[in-house]
Amino acid sequence: MTPIPFTFADSQLAAKISRMLSKSGKGVNESDILIYAQALRKSLAIVTLDKDFDKINSIVKGGLKILDPSGV
Question: What domains appear along the chain, each with residue ranges and CATH number?
Answer without folding.
Answer: 8-71 (3.40.50.1010)
